[in-house]
Amino acid sequence: MHTKPAILLAGVLALAPALAQAETQHSHWGTRWQRLPATPVPVAGMQTGYADVNGIQLYYATTGKGAPVILLHGGLANSDYWGLQVTELAKHHQVILVDSRGHGRSTRNVQPYGYDLMTDDIIALMDRLHLPTAAIVGWSDGAIIGLDMAMRYPQRVSKVFAFAPNTTTQGVKAGTEKNPLFAAYISRAEEEYKKLSATPNDYANFRRQISQMWQSQPEWRDEDLGKITAPVMIADGDHDEAIDRHHLEHIAATIPDAGLLILPTVSHFAFLQAPKEFTDAVLHFLDDKTSRT
User: Fold this and answer.
1) How far apart are CA 10 and CA 250, in angstroms?
2) CA-to-CA distance for 34 and 266, rounded, in angstroms?
3) Reduced to 3 states, what is the DSSP secondary structure of residue 278?
4) Is the dihedral of CA 141, 142, 143, 148 positive or negative?
5) Is the pLDDT of residue 253 over 50?
6) What pLDDT, in 10s, does the model give residues 117-142?
7) At 138, is the secondary structure helix, strand, or coil?
8) How confident is the model at residue 30, as a pLDDT?
9) How are the residues of the chain apportioned to helix, strand and coil, as percentages rounded to the nearest 5?
10) Are 32 and 273 in contact (CB under 8 A)?
């Protein structure tokens, strides 16, 4: 029996005034969803390491104490993108950052990319870190991995905050890569790959590998999503360049008792464009609290 609806609905309603105020305060920006703020610098003082999982070296970093939350970045990116969220989250949680296989500082091998494989990487890391369960905060591909975990490893996931996921390939807008902001992101991702990767000259092959996954995955049935038992918040920006809004609403309506949160005047990169509002939304969902200092 599900008991989440009141919790999630109350969370969205309680957060709404703050979001409305933020939208008013930033109305003069007008087009902040068209801006791609700089990638945050790595957070100082985190404990870092590499875990030997599924034939690769998976980079991770940890800080803070409390109930664990794993932050999973989007495709082509790296864990530095969460830098504006880490400090506040670490006041309340053990925060674990991960560079997905082949991304950032993590290595990859010849295994074809797949969301199940990337999910298995996170489960193996949790085993290495002796984490029976964790909450997942994911963006884009990271959000898809979070939902995959909730479906395939329900006992390992306490909650999922899924920002801008798609559950079928039809959920992605055609021509996303031609959007000016997205094109700028892709260009930036290549430069970051060259700086961080152990194979800095292999970006073309890396992108080819992951693009093959994107062409056919994910393709989940509604019945699969309907089996998720963890509390889930489906979130996005109201100006997302990549994910179709109707698709997002369908995901939220299909996962039992899932919440739906649309952040105002931001895009696929809301955690950079409106970091405080994004972090407040995450903390509210994780802790069922609205006021933060």
Assistant:
1) 20
2) 8
3) helix
4) positive
5) yes
6) 999 999 999 999 999 999 999 999 99
7) strand
8) 56
9) 45, 20, 35
10) yes
Residue 23, CA atoms < 13 Å, CB-side half-sphere: 13
Q: Residue 8's pLDDT is what? A: 43
What residue type is assigned to position 57 of the chain?
Q
As given in the structure block, the two tokens for residue 72 are 């999973």
Strand order through the sheet with 232-237: 47-53, 56-63, 93-98, 67-72, 134-139, 157-163, 232-237, 259-263
Instruction: From 266, 93, 232, 77, select the one nearest 85 (Cα to Cα).
Output: 93
**Phi, psi (degrees; rounded to nearest 5) at 63:** -160, 160
User: What residue type is 141 in one-letter code?
Assistant: D
Question: What backbone torsions phi and psi does residue 120 show, to the nearest 5 degrees?
Answer: -60, -35
* pLDDT tens per residue, range 65-121: 999 999 999 999 999 999 999 999 999 999 999 999 999 999 999 999 999 999 999
* Cβ neighbours for 273, distance < 8 A, ≥ 6 positions apart: 32, 33, 35, 37, 237, 266, 267
Other Cβ atoms less than 10 A from the Cβ of 16: the count is 11
H-assigned helices in the chain: 5-25, 83-89, 115-128, 141-152, 180-196, 203-216, 222-225, 245-254, 270-273, 275-287
Q: Please tell me whether residue 64 adopts helix, strand or coil conformation.
A: coil
Q: What does residue 241 show for φ and ψ, rounded to 5 degrees? A: -80, -20
pLDDT at 292 over 50: no
Nearest C-alpha neighbor of 163 from the set 31, 73, 225, 231: 73
Among 237, 283, 14, CA closest to 140: 237
